[in-house]
Amino acid sequence: MYTSGTTAKPKGVLITHENYLFAGHSSVLYQQLTPDDRYLIFLPLFHANSQYYTSMATLVVGGTIILRERFSSTDFWNVVDRYQPTATSLVATTIKMLLEMPEQEKEKGHPLKRAGYGLFVPYPELLTFQERFGISLYLWYGMTETITTNIVTPLYEEMVRDPENGIVSIGKPGLGHEVKIIDEDGEELPYGEVGQILIKGPSLMKGYFKNLEATSQTLQGGWLHTGDSGYMNEDGFIWFIDRSKDLIKRAGENISSIEVENIL
């Protein structure tokens, strides 16, 4: 699988069958899926989300996959009414689009009760979405190099916000994972201080395809250097701040500034 990775130039990420299985089993746990669940998937299948967090989870638990070619805000509730999904995965863009739609009769009384999502959504919009549609939202953080969602919002806990800025936490370390925040010298930072997010766990890539230099920079001492900055509080909740690399976010995708320069 190819990805922009934790640095700008696209690289090939080496992923094992064990990685896929762990991603599936851990995602079942995070989302509390059962064989009776019907998962609505419309995000691109080349993306880590649709491969690891949703498809693999549904296959592992023995549920049903409802696979759609694309997302349509105007047809979304018709799809829900027709196929009766119980879970789905969203991004900030789709959440905003659904909130901007006029109220519809089919957005009430449906079986769709939970949805994972990625990227920043303001807390008031999250509350409005949950109250209007009756869908519980949980935030998750992961990347192609880490395979599964390494930081997740537990379904059994309320969304935690920073008391000073009101931003919602991306969650706590997932199953079998450790997370720490370091400074530019590689020293672990105290709670509340911003630095690079490092992840250690049972589901990391083997390395980058034919790129030992990039592999040695990203994987050090069992820790994966994400290239993302954030901070952690005393309860283990983590906040994402920004990418430390030059990447552009567009519709949930990472676009390298180098790629843009090459196109231009």
From TrEMBL:
It comes from Sporosarcina quadrami. Signal peptide: none annotated. InterPro entries: AMP-dep_synth/lig_dom (IPR000873), ANL_N_sf (IPR042099). The lineage of its organism: Bacteria, Bacillati, Bacillota, Bacilli, Bacillales. PANTHER family: CROTONOBETAINE_CARNITINE--COA LIGASE, LONG-CHAIN-FATTY-ACID--COA LIGASE. Residues 1-209 form the AMP-dependent synthetase/ligase domain. It holds the Pfam family AMP-binding. This is AMP-binding protein.
